[in-house]
């Protein structure tokens, strides 16, 4: 089983259907916190649905249409990073993330998503990585900023969540900007070639 060190005792590892019980226990620890803006807790409410969701990502991995990785802190599953969309035909993918509350505020997600974006761009030739987020989700907007993404716009009331239509901000980073930032040692591609928001 591979593990990519993220520093400070954290690692990025595969997250697979056989780990459904551990995943459910993790989700139970973070259900309220994670569910404020994203529907993941709702679709992984019990062991069967948790296993089905992990299996859906195992199927996406096999079909090369998505990816899912767990973030572990001192061995314990505390969050995850996913490529919800992974379209090799267009070179476009969409990244997402979550943490249980005790693991937030340490930079784990930003480091984990950097690993996944590096892989998507450098190993898989993706041109565009998107980040979709509710405008009120400041912590996630800040992750997009720290990754050097550019805010492209707002989809109005496109996301019916818990009975209310929510707006969605679209952020992205393009491969040339990601590479230029890495080559120059700058973490934030937007500092090199700002795109209009
Ligand atoms: C979105 C979410 C994952 C962000 O978590 P997070 O802990 O704020 O993000 P990171 O792991 O990148 O950590 C960054 C924070 O750690 C701090 N930090 C502490 N030590 C750090 C270090 N060594 N390196 C980097 N950052 C560090 C940063 O200052 C930052 O805090 P700040 O935003 O208050 O300044 C989390 O809020 C969450 O799970 N929300 C619910 C699910 C969700 O909304 N997912 C996103 C859907 S779009």
From TrEMBL:
Species name: Streptomyces atriruber
Enzyme's top EC category: transferase
Keyword Transferase part of the UniProt annotation: yes
MF-aspect GO terms: transferase activity
Residue ranges crossing the lipid bilayer per the database entry: none
The protein, known as: GNAT family protein
SUPFAM superfamilies: Acyl-CoA N-acyltransferases (Nat)
Keywords: Transferase
